Amino acid sequence: MAAPNTSATGEGVADFLDAVPKERRGADATQMDEINQRLTGYKGEVWGSVSVG
Q: How far is CA 48 from the centre of its chain?
């Protein structure tokens, strides 16, 4: 089986999302992280250089 293309970076999600321009995209990203945590019970992780999950 092939190795995964991305892995958790250990970077803080809040720091990662704070770097996203806050017009609409940044606000949406922060809200989605809060929803994900509430629904799954898990804190998000930064994966690669462009993903939170």
A: 10
